[in-house]
Amino acid sequence: MKKNDMIKGDVLKSVMRFAIPIMLSQLLQYNYTFVDNIIVGRYVSTNALAAVGNVGAINSLIIGAALGLTSGFTIPVAHAFGAGNKKMVARYSASSISVAFSIGIVIVIIAHLASRPLLKLIGTPGEIIELSAAYVNILYFAVPLQMLSNNFTAISRAVGESKKPLYFFTVSVVLNFFLDLLFVKHLGWGVEGAAGATMICHFAAALMTGTYIFKYNKDVEITKSDFRPDFKIAFRQLKLGIPVSLQFTITSIGSMALQSAVNSFGANVMAGFTASARVENLTNIPMSAFGVSSQTFVGQNYGAGNNERIVKGVRKILFMTLVASAIMSLVLYFGGPYLVSLFMKEQNEEIMYAAKRYILATAQCYSLVAILLLLRNTLQGLGFTYANMVAGAGELVGRLLVAFVFTSLIGFNAVCYAAPAAWLLADIPLAIIYFRKRKQLLSGELKVKSEK
């Protein structure tokens, strides 16, 4: 088996080489929403921008939960790769593809039935509810395609390949940009055009990443027989994937509650909150990429039985992640207001005030999300995905307290500190779980289950 691994060599160099393509891939993947927001905000209206931003929490609930499953499905692929078991790499990969697509079809049906009731539940203002519904009801047809694309990408990363997905996302994002301009600016299709462009690009991404896995990745040689139903494998993958999915669901419920609090301040504050949240998501990419890299590093070394290397490596990756968070805090603080202005053709004092308050609060506390992403992905790499649910519960409590208690007491400023509060309440249980598992790793109590 060709070794695109992180089992040997310098940890920081290996992780950095692996993380940089992931950062660029996530930046490009993020551009689906980023470009939608900019083009809709500049060529349609502020209401259209508010409508697209308003569905963010609902999308996290539905699409985030779907993609969370695929993150869990491919954990055994990294373990099998680290153990040098090529047969099980193929079996786990094929099973993850079948299960991901099947669940994606079910989610499409559920999402369309639930979208309008959820929009009403979060208190979507009457002037934008039709725009929001039109946007998401097209976007949800892409869920099976997103799940396939995400699953193919996760398989590639599990076997140490992070560069090829970058090439595919580059093509799909460039395509999305031109289709957005065509559909929204030139054809005047509004938010429906933005959603349609994104759906087409998810199809292109799934086609390219799938072709690479099936035809060109020599570490994942999947045959027709590997798709033979194996309920034992599927059950193990579901056990790993469901907690990750539930973590997205739990945190999204908190985000929906928070969105309902934001909605009570009107369309201008909603637009400012939407734009600043998009900027915050952008500056969050380096920490997220280090987290994903940590999952692959830990997964491969766990499969290879390199427990001591895991502990030392995680400590080094944590340092790298905290440095990145400090840099991104400065970028967010000084460059955030300028980036917010890119989202809209019409600005006013209320929009910019909301955006600047949110950016300031986030920039002050970015180290908390760095710790969260590293610990969550590290435990995920070990296969302890239940930690995701525990962290998700902490995030939920933080957002609910802000939405239903502190917002009524101190207004929009409370909303701005909802994310830092959620990160802190997630970090505490994750740290406790990690140090417990760290002790077991060093004592040799934790060993990956070998399979033939």
Molecular structure report:
This protein is an all-alpha fold. It has 18 helices and no strands. It has helices at 11-43, 46-54, 56-73, 75-82, 86-121, 129-139, 143-158, 164-186, 190-216, 231-263, 267-283, 285-304, 307-341, 349-364, 366-382, 386-410, 412-416, 418-443. Helix 4 crosses helix 12 (285-304) and helix 13 packs antiparallel against helix 14 (349-364). The longest helix is centred in the N-terminal third of the chain and has 36 residues, at 86-121. 59% of the residues are buried.
- Rg over C-alpha atoms, rounded to the nearest angstrom: 21 Å
Number of strands: 0
Strand content: under 5%
N-to-C order of helices and strands:
HHHHHHHHHHHHHHHHHH
Structural class by SSE content: mainly alpha
* Distance, first to last CA: 16 Å
Main sheet makeup: none
Number of contiguous helices? 18
Mean pLDDT: 85
